[in-house]
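Ticket #118: bound-state structure for adenosine monophosphate.
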Amino acid sequence: MTEEKNKECIFCKIIKKEIAAEILYEDDDMMVIKDIRPKARIHLLVMPKKHIRNFNEIGEEDREMLGKMMYKIKEIAKDKGIDESGYKIVINTNKEGGQIIYHLHIHILGGEPLMGVV
Ligand code: AMP
Ligand code: ZN
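RESOLUTION: The complex was predicted; output attached.
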């Protein structure tokens, strides 16, 4: 596991288990938690264990890890029983993208109709 962490980052603290979260899955590369303020019946966050500020900051060396995260999302959607009903995956990036926490994360939203911005 990469030791690249940011001391001030809330998601790094969750990854280091310094702050509690409902963890659904973790391995050497990533963690999947429940969003603390769910915006849908199912609202999960998938984050790399490596501190990456946001989508703009991903590097060539992160491509494999990102592929693993996307594949895990597919598996989680099936596990949660929303693969057929449908779901959204969202990456908020910077201010106008609505990013609040500056540690890359992918939202998985589902379990109810989600007709909205996109
Ligand atoms: P974003 O706007 O993409 O940066 O989203 C940040 C998300 O993190 C929001 O949906 C928050 O509800 C969620 N969040 C903030 N703090 C925590 C926490 N301690 N545990 C789980 N989710 C959190
Ligand atoms: Zn972080």
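RESOLUTION NOTES: DSSP finds two helices and five strands in the chain.
TICKET STATUS: resolved
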